[in-house]
């Protein structure tokens, strides 16, 4: 099942005109399904598997354009699973989900994954926006998507965000953002005029198992307002008890 892409965006399409198909394989079912939901929100088709054997079966049915792979699975090493998948799907692009960055072990995971043919990696815990962005870039680099694709530039009113160059401008003036501020703004701009709750923002911008307090969202919204709205008609709005939204600024003098 696929869902519509975010407002103002068209989903990436394969060369045959069908939505991009992604297989997500991880031994944490909740994480795999959460990532699959995020991919479906992009308008892509996504299927999950919890171990190597299930991944091979799912790949035969899905014929994925890319795979997201945990490095450690219950029945096999993720690197070995990638090898099995590529026997039937040569050159299949792979994004590895590596262990939490606790030192030598995680670094070895990353090196091993890339040496074995993994195209990119994210380290748990990760933000869903980061994983989606890395997959988008991976698919483009692998030429797995059609030459004519959705523009990487998001526009809301006089605010412009370039997902490829990470440049942000309002009214033609450049705005410097931190990586987290950029991801938060990108999520807001992908959903213009839509109220996004704190839990939604935490899930998409921060990590799937974020253990901090929800007031981190308020903090970063305040940072964005200082950079995006300072001295200008406001674009970022609070809906008390519901969440936050971004929309084009009201014309000067409007009530």
Please describe what this structure looks like.
With 255 residues, the chain is an alpha/beta fold. The strands form 3 sheets. It has a 5-stranded parallel sheet with strand order 2-1-3-4-5, with helices on both faces. Strands 6-7-8-9 form a 4-stranded antiparallel sheet, covered by helices on one side. The longest helix is centred in the middle third of the chain and has 14 residues, at 128-141. The protein has helices spanning 29-41, 52-62, 78-88, 104-115, 128-141, 179-190, 198-205, 215-228; strands at 21-25, 45-49, 66-70, 94-98, 120-123, 153-156, 159-162, 167-170, 173-175, 236-239, 243-246.
Oligomer: single chain
- Using only C-alpha atoms, the radius of gyration works out to 19 Å
The tally of strands reads 11
N-to-C span: 43 Å
SSE string, helix = H, strand = E? EHEHEHEHEHEEEEHHHEE
Q: Please state how the strands of the largest beta sheet are arranged side by side.
A: 2-1-3-4-5
* Mean pLDDT across residues: 81
- By DSSP (H or I, 4+ residues per run), the number of helices equals 8
Bin the helical content. 25-40%
Give a quick account of the main beta sheet: strands, pairing sense, barrel closure: 5 strands, parallel
> Structural class given helices, strands, pairing?
alpha/beta
Low-confidence spans:
102-107, 109-117
Strand content: 15-25%
Shape: elongated
Features:
alpha/beta
Topology of helices and strands:
Layout: E1 21-25, H1 29-41, E2 45-49, H2 52-62, E3 66-70, H3 78-88, E4 94-98, H4 104-115, E5 120-123, H5 128-141, E6 153-156, E7 159-162, E8 167-170, E9 173-175, H6 179-190, H7 198-205, H8 215-228, E10 236-239, E11 243-246
Parallel strand pairs: 1-2, 1-3, 3-4, 4-5
Antiparallel strand pairs: 6-7, 7-8, 8-9, 10-11
């Amino acid at each position: 099942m696929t869902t519509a892409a975010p407002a103002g965006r068209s989903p990436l399409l394969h060369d045959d005109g069908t939505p991009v198909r992604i297989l997500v394989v991880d031994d944490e079912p909740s994480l795999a399904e959460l990532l699959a939901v995020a991919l479906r929100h992009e308008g892509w088709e996504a299927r999950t598997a919890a171990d190597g054997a299930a991944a091979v079966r799912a790949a035969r049915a899905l014929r994925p354009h890319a795979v997201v792979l945990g490095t450690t699975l219950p029945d096999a090493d993720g690197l070995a699973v990638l090898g099995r998948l590529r026997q039937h799907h040569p050159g299949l692009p792979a994004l590895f989900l590596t262990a939490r960055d606790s030192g030598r072990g995680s670094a070895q995971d990353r090196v091993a994954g890339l040496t074995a043919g993994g195209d990119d990696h994210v380290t748990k815990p990760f933000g869903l926006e980061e994983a989606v962005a890395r997959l988008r870039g991976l698919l483009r680099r692998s030429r797995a998507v059609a030459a004519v694709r959705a523009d990487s530039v998001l526009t809301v009113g006089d605010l412009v965000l370039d997902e490829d160059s990470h440049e942000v401008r309002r009214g033609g003036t450049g705005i410097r953002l931190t990586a987290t501020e950029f991801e938060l703004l990108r999520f807001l701009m992908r959903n213009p005029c839509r109220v996004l709750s704190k839990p939604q923002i935490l899930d998409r911008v921060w990590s799937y198992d974020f253990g901090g307090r929800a007031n981190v969202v308020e903090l970063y919204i305040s940072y964005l307002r200082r950079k995006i709205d300072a001295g200008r008609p406001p674009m970022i709005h609070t809906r008390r008890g519901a969440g936050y939204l971004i929309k084009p600024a009201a014309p000067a003098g409007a009530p």
